[in-house]
Design goal:
Length: 123
C-alpha cells in the first residue's frame, strides 16, 4: 500500500477520529498527562492531526504552518523513556479501537507509530 493513499481512504474525518480518541485519554494517563499542560492539549491535537494528514497524502497545512517536521528535535524538551513510549502506544492502540479505521489503514498506521514512537525515545 502506498502510504500517501491513506488520506484518500479515510479522509480528514478518519484522522480527526483517531487523534481525538487519543487525546481524550491523555489527561488521565499517569505519564503522558504530565507532559501536556491542559491549555496545550487542543494545540497538540491539531499538530498531530495536521502532521498525519500531511504525512499520509492529505493537504500540506502542517508544512505550511510549521515547516519541516523535525520530529526528534521538536520532542527533545520532553523526557521520553521506554515507559512513556509504551504508554503513548497503549493510548494510540485504544484510539484505533474507537476510530474504527479500515484494517489495512490501521495496519500501516500502527507500524508507523511503532517505529516513530521508538525513534522518539531520548532517555
Amino acid at each position: 500500500m502506498d502510504e500517501t493513499a491513506i488520506y484518500s481512504m479515510i479522509g480528514e474525518d478518519g484522522f480527526i477520529r483517531l487523534v481525538a480518541a487519543f487525546y481524550r485519554q491523555v489527561p488521565d494517563d499517569a505519564i503522558l498527562g504530565k507532559m501536556y499542560p491542559p491549555d496545550e492539549l487542543a494545540a497538540a491535537e491539531q499538530r498531530l492531526r495536521d502532521f498525519l494528514i500531511y504525512r499520509f497524502g492529505g493537504p500540506q497545512r502542517y508544512i505550511e504552518e510549521r515547516g519541516h517536521p523535525r520530529l526528534r528535535a521538536r520532542h527533545l524538551p520532553f523526557q521520553i523513556d521506554r515507559a512513556a513510549r509504551d504508554n503513548w502506544m497503549r493510548l494510540m492502540n485504544l484510539a484505533f479501537a474507537e476510530a474504527a479505521l479500515p484494517a489495512e489503514v490501521e495496519l500501516h498506521l500502527r507500524a508507523f507509530f511503532d517505529q516513530m514512537s521508538t525513534f522518539m525515545i531520548n532517555q
